Amino acid sequence: xxxxxxxxxxxxxxxxxxxxxxxxxxxxxxxxxxxxxxxxxxxxxxxxxxxxxxxxxxxxxxxxxxxxxxxxxxxxxxxxxxxxxxxxxxxxxxxxxxxxxxxxxxxxxxxxxxxxxxxxxx
Length: 122
Hints:
The structure is a single chain. This protein is of the alpha+beta class. It has a single domain (2-106), classed as Aspartate Aminotransferase, domain 1, CATH 3.90.1150.200. It contains 4 helices and 6 strands; from the N terminus they run ααββββαββα. The protein has helices spanning 5-9, 13-29, 67-79, 99-112; strands at residues 34-38, 41-46, 49-56, 60-64, 83-84, 89-92. The longest helix is centred in the first third of the chain and has 17 residues, at 13-29.
């Protein structure tokens, strides 16, 4: 969690604990992913390619897995009661975090990008 220390220190203390919990969960469940901060966002990479990123907004935590993942899971995201854009899913602070949805998105990206060599999808 040391890699995210400065980022976490700069966010609203009201949301810091939940962000720490989610980032810690990813680190525990996916120890092979590399935790990094790029573009002032905590994110995780696999063999140098982007897997998932997180950011904080006033009313929600944004989870950004890339557009292909949003398209793949759009129906599940909506069925779970979450809002999304083309690039991110909004997890409201006033609801329990949906780790099963996060797990599906991360695992899809790990598998789909197993042989990928660029950071982002083209």
